[in-house]
Amino acid sequence: MPVRPATLIDAAGIAHVHVTSWQDAYRDLLPADFLNRLSVKQRWRQWKNILQVSHGHTLVYEHIEPAGERQIVGFAGLGACRDQDIDSHTTGEIYAFYLASAHWGKGYGATLMRAALELLRELGNERATLWVLRNNQRAIRFYERAGFAADGCTKIETLPGSIEITEMRYWRNIQ
Out of 33, 53, 121, 131, which residue is the most buried by the measure of CB atoms under 10 Å away? Predict the structure, then answer.
């Protein structure tokens, strides 16, 4: 199966997908100078740390090229729900879900989502939540096709450079 648990050696591939998918997915949603300043090297250091000390789980989608070379094209970070108004004993959260834009619309995301939801189920969760940028219509359509629905909860996050974004919480049953 192309989806597997991430290991420390995957940090560089995850970082590359993380930065480039932000740059592609948020091109019309966030300031260009912010997106251009995103650094794969900095994100690689963050992912190295996450994979070493995290209590969550990270899955990677590994595509095998025709020449046999393996390439990480997507990842999902997940674990217990972090929201104060939700029971983290029965609800898991997808913290991050990104796929390289060259692989959008080819079924890779659906495969990765099924694996993420199955892992959350195996961890004893009955529901799953995630947060999505309010204006990210492509992601919203994808999550809705995966069975998620907005629950009416929103939050404002501040990115570096004092960029405020509004996120909406989505949820679904997974039992």
Answer: 131
